[in-house]
Design brief:
3-stranded antiparallel β-sheet; 111 residues; single chain
Length: 111
């Protein structure tokens, strides 16, 4: 199953541990074990403060949702996966211009 969720962090640090989740969309989509899959996601602010999120697996869109809360995207976000075992190969994040943002190591890690 594929699920898109928005995380509302709990007040105060650390923001990566606690919080409440809102499910935005779900879809039944099985993946074959032991194989690489190409997964891509796009997140776009729409004109009236809606945020559109689309998830594709192996070139096929499996989830497409709009979120009105918390409104327009104004800051960098994060990518994560829960309740799954993943390995990344060729991971790339790009801003709306298609450029890679400057590398900033995650807090508590070494560059």
């Amino acid at each position: 199953m594929a699920v898109l969720k928005r995380k509302h962090p709990a007040p105060g640090p650390p923001v990566d541990e606690e919080g409440a989740y809102t499910t935005l969309a779900t879809a039944d989509h099985a993946l074959a074990d032991g194989r690489w899959h190409q997964i891509s996601a796009t997140v776009t602010t729409r004109g009236d403060d809606r945020v559109r999120i689309a998830l594709s697996v192996n070139g096929r869109t499996v989830l497409d949702a709009e979120d009105r809360e918390p409104g327009r995207l104004t800051e960098a976000g994060g990518v994560g996966a829960a309740n799954t075992e993943m390995a990344f190969f060729g991971f790339t994040a790009r801003d709306h211009t298609g450029c890679r943002p400057p590398h900033r190591p995650a807090e508590g890690t070494y560059p």
